[in-house]
Amino acid sequence: MRSLVLAAALAVLPPTVAVAQAAAVETTAPAQKARLIVLSDIEADPDDSQSLVRLLLYANEIDIEGLVAITSTHMRAEVHPETMPRIIAAYGQVQPNLAKHVPGYPTAETLLAKVSVGQPAYGMAAIGPGKDTDGSRAIIAALDRPDPRPLWIGAWGGTNTLAQALTTLRATRGPAELERLIGKLRVYAISDQDDTGAWIRKTFPKLFYIVSPAATARRPGWAWASRPRGWTTPRCPTPGSPPTSSRATARSARPIPTSPTAWRATPPPSWV
Hints:
It is a single chain. By secondary structure, the chain is an alpha/beta fold. The protein has 11 helices and 6 strands. It has one domain (32-228): Inosine-uridine Nucleoside N-ribohydrolase, Chain A. Helix 3 runs parallel beside helix 4 (83-101) and helix 6 crosses helix 7 (160-172). The chain is globular, with a radius of gyration of 21 Å.
């Protein structure tokens, strides 16, 4: 009905005015929050801790439905979910102040309930019957909620916890239901940080899946999953030397407004 009234009102206005009025209505419509589950190889190096601090500062604009500690090619045999509560506790100290400026920031307690552990080992070897984890179950539970919005999976590390969720769904749901649930997923992976990303894309070709290759000048299109075993993560060569990317360092080192506590929880930018 509202759209009919708007159309009738615009119909009696001159074309230029009608276009301007329609644009105003379009831009003032409330934006729908995105649903997000993060898969993080936190503690493989400091970047995911830095990213989690940044994410929490936008927690009023995103529905964070899961924070899952997982493995990757950088950290194949362990997970570290204990770092997430530490960062969330720092967020909890500044959340009341953030909420004074903009509504919608969840409490630290709400976010703590979203923390879980995914596959505790590397890649395809960690998925299969009987290998469900709290992290894979969290993905399935989010998909099962009667929420029409897409569910985004942000893969900051490996994707075998997502692979396990899809494996379980394929084994327990009918073809139509499986297709419906896959249609709700939106995956963004920061490269293939284990060997399940390619398997997921091949096995579930209708899945919306964006992968950002870890490309360099020497290795265009190179994925982390294909790097030689034992290859170490690049660091600044010597103390005090310029970092690899001054632009990235400048962005990481910029103080976060109104959040000195959260800033103290962020690892130093010298790694970037």
